């Protein structure tokens, strides 16, 4: 299949490579063109503009945030202006439900197809084609995409015929992660003030009821107080919690834990920790317990 | 070893049986004596009083709550009054840090030894000797208990020389579970209002970042809205959150998520749901979203 | 002075009448023109368009929300397109900080002047020229407005040279009101479950430490459970709390009580109470206490 | 009337003096006896023991906390052991609902009468007989106390026939004060980060909707950042919020704002501010906003 791929960050690199590896003709585009080199060596073609990457049956976007996706899709010479009628834009970025709705409308108006397919997984999973793909879109749009999703992920979940619903599910996953971080942080502040070793405590949790990747990853970072460099920055955590709350407001669903997380991330950002890993919420729990030794 | 075992509920049955199975002479006591029968058939001896069960080197207690443990230990003809000097009381119940401190003091005064050894695991794990034992106590007290812990559990974590610290760790685990329940509840309220199937959503979570027993168990109950009969009642959830908050206050550790959970459990109890499984917090999230269809 | 006045709702009526009464030539505009009649009888001139009302040295706007102010100001044939250079737009509506910033920029670009002057007070205070005016703007812009503020209010507070700051102060006042409502609601739920008469309780509060209009007004509504017709609807309360939170996020100020209020208002709206007075938050406190008798 | 008065702190001094001034024979007792001197000069008699102060028809207690009231009332040679049958204990201290219930039971068992009569007002109001008395008790117990309440206060509110209910109302008042403090703190953090002068902001509030003693007192302290010496220490604020939450749990009334306040006070105490005035909650709001300049 002729595929365009826009956005060659840590995640996009691996995803595009796996599409190349599955035998597709992939034209890649990145704002900083040097990111395309490794993919060209593997057989991809480098596009100099977004429009060039849109000469395809399917164009993926895997970008940092709403602003980037909006610019690439709806801006002048963007995807909506360039993609042939009948071709499909697959948006894999973590974006707001509201933007996803606007993309859906814009593509519909332009006679193009649109699907949302955000993913769960870190860059290593992207490289190894082990992502989980959360897909939403009309059945006739999703059906031909199925082999592409298989090329980048280990499993695809089709959650809705409405593309924005996949974005909602993705955002809710980040909300669950942030909640786990905050809760571990509070528990660690509690037991460590009673003298329990943080690492041992996290070992107990992750050996027993919480033997899950989320608790292992973030419990470990919190136990080791390893907040730099950020795997996912607190400022992005704040953004995603804001997007979850906005979705909750649109759907009229109160989310008290998300509200609490918003204030915590905002505190972290306001006190100079926006660049730290979002697990640095743990420094606030320690600080509020008067445990100056454990603060960042 | 001569062992007494007091409290033959779902958990205590399995633990006592495994101590018998490991070749120890076990004298069992339960307020309702019929619970002892199965154990007597396996080779245990039935005691008619707490005092009788205390003619031992080690006496375990595995009871429902502070009140029961206090009555059995500090009441007239209780363990503190009956256990020989030098023998050890191993408290495995989920009790408050404050009561554990009082037990430690009472046993010290009586020349007895005391260890805390609450466990993680459900009745099936207790039967299968697959519990995780969270032990705390003086090294010389814990050392001879090691084979007993091996008989009932798959792994022992020694977290402190202060017995109450094991109770703190156990309570913190229940806090983490309750937090996971609340967070899943909010997320499910959110995505299901957008039309996502609850069961599929939980499948996504537990296939990916949250592939942990806690999320599988409670996510499943929430997806199926299966809140009766209660595996662990909301009223007990409220009690444990209260104990965590009390421990936090004693140690001066603010726990905002625990505070939120306290209000949620209190709402559930006040509105008639105290007997439901604690995962029925999900009915509140659905109710507050105006999703009457999904409420209990 | 030649004055335009746009927005003749409950508040605007009184404000415009007082400007007429102070001897100014006032041209009034309202989307539904019949609202202008009473003012014309007092000596005002009715404009058929926004542009007509802009043939003035000063044009006031007193409209319902961001959307209305944005349409009237930035829309085609709006104030920014119609007001003579050097004339001043005085925005008295309760709008977002962000919109106030956009208005400031638009008027600056058009060579017009802009001041924010939201008010504290209810319709009766507007009629009686007893409002409190919260003004912000450049000194040279505000100075000539001083007699106009005196005509509509009992006192003017100049809080900043930046117009949006007056909007922030106004929003913060609504946040304080909503907080008082929620707190009274919780306290009333508590004492009334112990059998204390609600009205007597509110009398105690407002005779002693809380002898303030806010507590008298909302305490009374809560005691009498008088939530219809709404003086200020819960859906507007939700909007204003959202605007306060947005301002807090822009300024990086966490506002935990505002977050809690957001979830409460969202719950009220999601469960069908958006049209009730915002003091109907009291129905949630009663409901969560299992006090079905006291719920709306 | 023969009256005993136990507890001659800032509040008790004024109350006892006003009882003397109304012509009653007052026997006073304080743990530190020098506090009695001024009252003896006005005509009171000094008792050397609690029991001596109990040779009376009515004995008032005005003490610091539960512990003091429990010791004086239920301890050896305490009020319950010393007061003649048929005489009345009037408890004016701010104590827990639970302790008030225990006092009621103890006095009933001893054939004594018991009323709760906590007060609203500061030491100056106590001296000036301007307190507000919140009374609860059986009508036949309260009726003869009426002239005594008139001697110490400007108005008496009889809220219930159950004495502990007066304690609940008193505690709820402190909850409302703490809520006002927290809300003002958040609002001040918000507007001051936008450059608004704190004192002017508080002036606006207390000139308009919040022209109440509570907002004037605490708004002023927050504007001036005047947290020492404490009028009412943060550690006592924490205690009272804890008692409100305990009462809420007993009555099954969730109190989300009180939960938030508990965590805030606990943070303040854990980070070394327990001795500051409880209005020092404002330092947390400023700190979390990154406004280091305004923190304590």
UniProtKB/TrEMBL annotation, chains A, B, C, D:
Source taxon at top rank: Bacteria
Segments forming domain 3-hydroxyisobutyrate dehydrogenase-like NAD-binding: 166-283
UniProt keyword annotations, A-Z: NAD, Oxidoreductase
InterPro entries in the cross-refs: 3-OH-isobutyrate_DH-rel_CS (IPR002204), 6-PGluconate_DH-like_C_sf (IPR008927), 6PGD_dom2 (IPR013328), 6PGDH_NADP-bd (IPR006115), HIBADH-like_NADP-bd (IPR029154), HIBADH-related (IPR015815), HIBADH-related_NP60_sf (IPR051265), NAD(P)-bd_dom_sf (IPR036291)
One Pfam family this sequence matches: NAD_binding_11
Residue ranges of every copy of the 6-phosphogluconate dehydrogenase NADP-binding domain listed in the record: 2-158
Family, per entry: Belongs to the HIBADH-related family.
Descriptive protein name: 6-phosphogluconate dehydrogenase
Organism: Mycobacterium paraense
């Amino acid at each position: 299949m002729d595929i365009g791929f826009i956005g060659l960050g840590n995640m996009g690199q691996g995803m595009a490579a796996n599409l190349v590896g599955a035998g597709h003709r992939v034209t890649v585009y990145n704002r900083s063109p040097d990111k395309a080199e490794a993919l060209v060596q593997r057989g991809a073609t480098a596009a100099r503009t977004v429009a060039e990457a849109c000469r395809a049956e399917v164009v993926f976007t895997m970008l940092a945030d709403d602003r980037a996706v909006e610019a690439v899709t709806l801006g002048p010479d963007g995807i909506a202006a360039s993609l042939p009628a009948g071709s499909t834009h697959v948006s894999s970025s973590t974006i707001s439900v509201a933007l996803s709705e606007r993309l859906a409308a814009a593509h519909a108006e332009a006679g193009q197809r649109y699907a949302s397919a955000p993913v769960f997984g870190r860059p290593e999973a992207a490289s190894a084609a082990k992502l989980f793909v959360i897909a939403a879109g009309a059945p006739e749009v999703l059906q031909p995409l199925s082999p592409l999703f298989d090329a980048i992920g280990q499993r695809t979940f089709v959650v809705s015929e409405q593309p924005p619903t996949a974005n909602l599910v993705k955002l809710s996953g980040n909300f669950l992660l942030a909640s786990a971080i905050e809760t571990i942080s509070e528990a660690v502040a509690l037991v460590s003030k009673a003298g329990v070793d943080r690492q041992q405590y996290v070992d107990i949790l992750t050996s027993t009821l919480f033997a899950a990747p989320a608790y292992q990853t973030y419990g470990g970072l919190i136990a080791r107080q390893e907040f730099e460099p950020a795997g996912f920055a607190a400022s992005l955590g704040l953004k995603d919690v804001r997007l979850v709350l906005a979705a909750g407001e649109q759907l009229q669903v109160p989310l008290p834990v998300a509200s609490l997380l918003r204030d915590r991330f905002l505190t972290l950002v306001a006190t100079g920790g926006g660049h730290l890993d979002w697990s640095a919420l743990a420094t606030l729990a320690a600080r509020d317990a008067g445990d100056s030794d454990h603060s960042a």
